[in-house]
Specification:
Strand order of the largest sheet: 5-6-7-10-9-8
Largest sheet: 6 strands, antiparallel, barrel
CATH architecture of the largest domain: Beta Barrel
Number of strands: 10
Order of helices and strands: EEEEHHEEEEEE
Distance between the termini: 59 Å
Number of domains: 2
Structural class: mainly beta
Amino acid sequence: MLRSPERFLTGKAGSRARVFRLREHPHLCRKTRGKDGNPRFAPKIRTEIENNLAQTATAPQRSTPSVTPVADLARFFPEATPVRIPVHLARIHAPGGAAEFSESTVIEFGTPHEVLFAAKAPLEFADVLRLRNSDGTFDTEVSVVAVQYHPGNTLVAARFVSDVPNWIVKS
């Protein structure tokens, strides 16, 4: 349904349905008298509106939920950088001993000296693990330095047993 344009106090044409009506918003207007003596509503100037608003205050920022549980563990490692490196995981019972790769996981965060990932295997502090990627270019031993248990998986932070140069490159 088309409406015919109406004239407003400004002399412009428009539709009442789309125009802000001051009478419906008395907190934004002041009552005055027009040249003809009839009451009319005029918009308040900005300082009048600001004086009617509540006082400004600061509030603490809401914490954003972590994308993964490993991200919660990464908060304790300030140098941690997000990475996504698929690896095979094996527990080593004797240092330098043979390892049977029991599960695949993804290294989600890394520092120059640690890796952080989630594992299905029940790992414990000081366990020695071997991590290897599919093409064998990343094959190293790590020792578990932090563990968080969650239903269904274990969050692990493990430190390299020997130095692994340039395994993580920051851009």
